[in-house]
Design goal:
The N and C termini lie far apart (about 45 Å). This protein has about 110 residues and is an all-alpha fold. Helices cover about 80% and strands about 0% of the residues. It folds into two domains: about 1-30, no CATH class; about 40-110, no CATH class. It is extended, with a radius of gyration of 21 Å.
Length: about 110
Amino acid sequence: MLLFGSIVMLTALWNHSILISLAGIVFWIAACLKLPEAKPPFKFVEMCLKWERSWIAKKWDFKKISRFVLVLAAVAVFLFAVWKNSYISLLLFVGFGINMLCIRANKAMGVEKP
């Protein structure tokens, strides 16, 4: 954390920015604090590994191929939007992501039929 604070401070000096230098000072102070050890999210990691194993075990049918191609296309469009600094496209991705989360939650609660 101390090294990260130093890098942030060097960036602040390079850009002559007061806000970045304040962030660097916050990182330096945080590095000096004695904080309790955080519990790692093993349950989340196990859930992700279980999902990945089940996805790999499935056959390559039309549904799996179409989802794979859709994810690759979405990643390509997202990287292009980041490269072009298109905030509208990035907000559109956030909106689609939130919409997908709402649809999954509705299906899980029984509001929407699968």
